Amino acid sequence: RRQKLQDALDFYTVFSETDACELWMSEKEKWLEQMEIPDTLEDLDVVQHRFDILEQEMNNLASQIEEVNRAASGLIESGHPRSGKVRQCQEHLNARWKVFQEMVAQRRKAVDFALSLHNYCVDCEETKKWILEKTKVIESTQDLGKNLAGMIAMQRKLYGIERDLAAIQARLAALKQEAHRLAEEHPDLADDIYCRLAAVTGVWQDLQNTLQSQEASLGEASKLHKFLQDLDDFQAWLFKAQKGVASEGVPNSLVEAEHLLQQHAALKEEIDQHKEDYRHVKEIGERVTRGQTDVEYQQLEQRLQGMDTGWNALCKMWDSKEKFLNQCLGFQEFLKDAKQAEIVLTNQEYTLAHIEPPETLEASEAAIRKYEDFLATMEANEEKITGLVGSGNRLVAEGNIYSDKIREKVQLIQERYRTNVTKSQEAYVLLKNNHDLQNFLQNCQELTLWIDEKMLTAQDISYDEARNLHSKWLKHQAFMAELASHQGWLEKVDEEGQLLAKKKPQYAGAVSQRLVELHQLWDKLQVTTEEKAQHLFEANRSDLYAQSYADLGAWISEMEEQLKSDVQGKDLTSVNILLKNLKRLDEQVSVRKREMEDLLSQAPPARGEMHEVDGKHEAIEKRFRDLLEPLSQRRKELEMAKAKYQLDRDLADELLWMQERLPFAQSTDHGTDLLSVQLLMKKNQTLQKEIAGHAPRIEEILCRGESMLSGAGGDGDFRDIEERLKQLRDSWGTLQEEASKRLQRLEEANEAQRYYLDAGEAEAWISEQELYMVTDEKPKDEESGIVMLKRHLRQQRSIDDYGKNIKQLAGRAQKLLSSGHPEGEQIIRLQGQVDKQYAGLKDLAEERKRKLEQMYHLFQLKREVDDLEQWIAERDVVASSQEMGQDLDHVTLLREKFRDFARETGSIGQERVDNVNLIIEQLIDAGHPEAATIAEMKDSLNESWADLLELIDTRMQLLAASYDLHKFFYDGGEILVLIEEKHKELPEELGRDVNTAESFHRMHTAFERDIHLLGVQVQHFQEVAARLQAAYAGEKAVTIQTQEQEVVKAWKALLAACEGRRDQLVDTAEKFRFFSMVRDLIFWMENVVRQIETQEKPRDVSSVELLMKYHQGIKSEIDTRDKNFTTCIDLGKTLLQRKHHAVAEIKEKLVQLTEKRREMVEKWDRRWDWLRLLLEVCQFSRDASVAEAWLIAQEPYLSSGDYGHTVDGVEKLLKRHEAFEKSTATWEERFAALQRLTTLELLGKRKIPEEPSQHKVAKTTELEYDFEPETEHETGPKEEGKKEAGLSLEDAFSPSAEDSSLVQESEKQAYETAPEEPPEEKLPETEITVGDQETATKESLFKVVSTPVSEIDETTTLPAQLDRSHSVQLEGFLGRKHDLEAPNKRASNRSWNTLYCVLRNSELSFYKDAKSLALGVPYHGEEPFQMKNAFCEVAADYKKKKHVFKLRLSNGSEWLFHGKDEDEMHTWLQGFSTAIIESQSIKTKAQSLPLPSITTMDVSLTKKDKEKRFSFFPKKK
To answer: For the residues 1389-1404, what does the mean pLDDT come to?
Structure first.
């Protein structure tokens, strides 16, 4: 059913498709019948396009008709019931289709003819116009040729015309062919066709006549024309060659390097070919320019010089490029070899890295064989490595441009190879050692197995039966002999093991253990064997003797019977059997004799039996001796017979073997193809190997035969052997000769078949490439042209590369012919065919390349010409503008824009036009098929460009004239305005001080420079006016003259005003300079006085010394200013001598300066005396504090009521008291020093009673210093001192926080044991007198105020003062930023500052630097941060800087700090945390804990600090 349904489907498909096809053909037939041939070219193009579409539709319809025919044929073949109707439908469709195709072909032919005729007519008209234009150009050159410039221009035109004539001639030839074709197709139109052709030919003849007449009239100019043409051609080629040499790139592979080198060599050949042209052009040029002085001839000479320079540069460029390419080639070859060497080294490294010692002897032997093969491969590859290294070193020595890379690669490969060689030697030694060990272990294993096997035999004790006692005895004797023979095996293994352990100590343990085990087994076996032998012998000694002698006698009788028989062998087999039997008899005789001797030696008989045994033994020995001679005689006879029979057998075998091989050696079958020839060569090689293998055997047989013949001495039995030996010798020589001849014939056949195979492949490849070259596919646009050209260049490159194979084939063919190969002529004929096919392929490739390049160049030229013409048209619009400008700005703008426009147009346009002309000339010279069209494009383009340049020149001249006129009037107005402005800029003020005076002077100097430039402008303006007056007349000339007079008049007035201003400024400058110097010096002296008066308050000896150094620095600064004072006073005296108009004011300034200087020096002296007194007082205060602390520390001991309760206790207290008295004696000198009066006390005793203190304080205002009194040493609870005006020495003497720790240590014990308040100490008031003024100060130098212990303030402050020695102290530079002023309120100034931070006594202070810390000057006067209730942590949310932590104070403000590293950040965080904890625990400690003991010094104090603080007193011994 499926088949029926399929048939029904095919049936209906046939009829439906047939109806559709016929319907389509009917419609197209109607269109073809109604169509008329158009009369215009455009309509014909439309109709042709419709026919192209119709052709595509017909191709589609043809596939449908083919499907219908296939389906109809299937129905007819399957016997469809309606097959007749189907066949009728099929035939009707095919007939209709054939008629339709013929109709379409006829109509298409008619349309093609009409189109060809129209194109022919158009081409005739265009060619005629073209020829007429060239005729006009030739006629226009008749006026040229009067000078060299004219001749050059004429030769260029004629050169271009000649190239155009070649294109016109090609066009005429094409028109003639087309005319003949059209006339043959339509004879009725032949007259009209030939008439048009005749018109074109007539015009062409006129053009040629005109050109010939012009060339004939030139005369000498034609020679110059020829020379210039040759010069242009040579320079064009020279430029192209230089571009070719310079454009060669750097090769990136070996193939590319070889290809570039080949191209470079081809370029050298081209240069050599043009060398003669260069000499010819040079000689003619020198002849033409010799003695000529015309400018054009000089330019021509310069061109010749440029040609010489270019030729020399080309040769140098080629040489340098050749050297560069050779170096690149050497480098690429080195890289190729290096890559192969690296692969070899990598394989070697992999093999060496995976070597493991095997564990068995067989595996070890296999591993050694495999490794030896590997070593042989390494040795074979060593030549590659050494060759690569040698080539690399040679390239480096030659100075290759890649020397660094080559040297690096060579070193790497050498290092890797040395490493591999070292590893290979180590691995080979390892495998050898392992093989020796495995061999030893294998021998030990075999010997152990043998010993175990023999141990079973030795342990067999089944010998209790008498009937088999003798046989067991004999077997055991043989067993013992076997053991004795194998004793050497054990000794050999032992020696091998000891040698192995000696040479290879790493195996000594395993070897010695194995040997010990073997010796133990062997000793056990020997002991067991000896025990068994003794037991067997003792079992039945008498029976053993009797049985043994009886057996020997019977055996000897049997042997005598055998020797009496004279059986002789008839052939080699029987003789061999007889020899084997005789050998067995010999062995039996020796064995029996040894048994008898062993029997007597092992167990001698009893004394009664001795005589009988000796008789039997002598008889047996006599019979043994009688057997030996017949045995030797029998052995000689049998060996002689065996040698003869063996020689016969060997001769027969070898002759048979030669007869079998000789037919193959003489065979003439040499194979029909390469595979069969190679198979026959392999068989012949096998035969050669067999012959070489049989050669020793043949020689041996011949030697045996000759020796046998010489020994026979002419016996008749050996004549047959002599003949067979001769036959063997002849056959052997024949076989060797035939085998060598066959080898030669097969090698010739192999060469021929190889050549045939390669030639066949070459022909197939050439045929395949020809299919690509004969295609008529053409590019439709520039892009498709590039694609097709690139594809073709790749194919052509492969064709050129294949030429090497063709050359190799030709060389092989010539070699075969010259060597006399039997098929040499046939091979040469075949090679000729291959060469012809290859040459034809190259011609086809060149032809297709030429066509594709021409199409591509034409598309490229059309694009360039269209773009350039459009660009010229746009520039024409701009150049033809008539706008001249309304004023100077307008005309300047127009001129600048048009100048830029002209510059851009000239540079870009000329370059583009020259490039297009050069391209066109190159295409026409190359014989482009569209040369006529290209020449028309060139003429049109050059005319448009010349018109544009002329418009630009005209426009530039008009704009220049308009600009000059407008510029003159504009410059006149500008100069008048400038002169007026300069008048207004001259001020009347002379200055109120030195700065303004100098400023006015500088301004006036700059003003004069400015007007100097203005004077240059005025001079230039006068020159322009003179030039314009000469160029213009009438009203414009009068206007120009008036403008010039106004400018000159204003300029003279300005010069007069400037001179008066200069004189006034010079008088004023000197006065203000003197006043300025006086003011600066007075200001400086006031600053010095202020520094002297406002110095910081000293707190201790170090701060006083620092102030004295600072004060001495002020003195040095005063001394350095003496030169300035001298200069200023001299200047004032000079002004007074000149009688300046401000004499009184100058004299007043001099007096003021002198008084101020004297006052400053006096203040410095008073301050210096006061500092020296203060230093003495501070030293006394420091020493007194130390002494007082010592006294307080000793008071508890003296007031103690403990006098001891026992004798020992009292003696200890006495010794302690004696030690106390000795220490007290050392302090007496210190207290005596303290009792001496200071200078300040001596002065105070003289001045105290004279005046009230208030009056004295008022008199000493110049040296008044206010200090805040601080608490003195913590000798007990005390009040703060009151602030008073005047000089407070107590403040200066109070110890700082840095020094207080020393005093505190000596005070703490006193606080614990003596809480009673000490009496108040008062010091006398002091009065200081310096110079004429005196300063009185009345203060108590030391105050000790008693206060009840129950007061809260003192109890809370006391621990804080006591705990200073244990508080956290840190100092150093940190970055600080104020982040928050209060919670959720950002600070106003959030910038980072680097400050010197000090953490002390739960307070954080800030200073600018360490010097500010020493002077006690906080940063911007800030109060220290109180650490109580503060909080510190790492600022994890701050990302802009690293190592940032923050501190939040109790008032809510938040500060960020930045450390230099993480360690510094953690150090400060720890210090802050400790300070916060201590600040919160101070009050608790004071109320609940006892005071800590301070009997020892702070361990943190350095030796230097101790010595400094106790400098007044000697150290305690």
So the answer is: 88
